[in-house]
Design a protein that fits this description.
By secondary structure, the chain is an alpha+beta fold. Helix content is 33%, strand content 24%. The chain folds into two domains: 76 residues, OB fold (Dihydrolipoamide Acetyltransferase, E2P) (Beta Barrel); 154 residues, Recombination protein O, C-terminal domain (de novo design (two linked rop proteins)). α1 packs parallel to α3 and α3 packs across α4.
Length: 241
Amino acid sequence: MATLTEREGYVIRAANFRDSDQMISALTSDGLISFLARGVNKPTSKNGPACRLLAHSKFSLSEGKAGGFSLRESLCLAPAPEKEDLLTMASLTFIAELSSKTLQGEGLGKEYPWLARAVEAIREGFDPLTSVLVLFAHYLALEGFGLNVDECVYCGAKTGIVGLSYQDGGFVCRKCLNESATEANSRKLKIIRYCFRCGLSDFSRVTFQKEECIGLISELCQYLNDLTGVRLKSLSIIQKL
């Protein structure tokens, strides 16, 4: 008899498999889980709503002898934010791709509260691009790629910070400014520090201008690509907003 397991989480990837099936990946408080959802593409499928991207759902899964999971039944606790403006849709698309390509392996439940907060903040009307930026920063930090935003990465100075080096992983003081660092104004540095240092309770405390968010999201995408080779295709949609 197949073993049954219950999981609750957010769908971060839904890939078509055969005619009407999908392979689903969801981020839960216990980490990532993937499973086969048979017939989910059919208009009459009861599991369809629960398997849409960024839906918050509860899944009852059957584990086969080979160890793979398949969906038995599901309950959609909350659909993805249903807003038709391009900014929101582009942001949600980016969050789903960022999550599916950045979070790898098992034991990643630590990212779950941040994804949940980002999606719920957008549902509540909080700025989507600010949500993307803060989530991106915390994903990087939790994956071990966070920037040092507390001191100069070269000398440890906590004052006189005037620039940022993605190559060397953080803030740079005026004395240590070099060709691998980019000088930045105080507002940009404050935004970067806030995004990496804020807590969950601060998530919706401040918003940033669209141009500021897009610029920093683009920089973080390049940083991620340089470190891991991961390229986010949905960035091009963000950049056209």
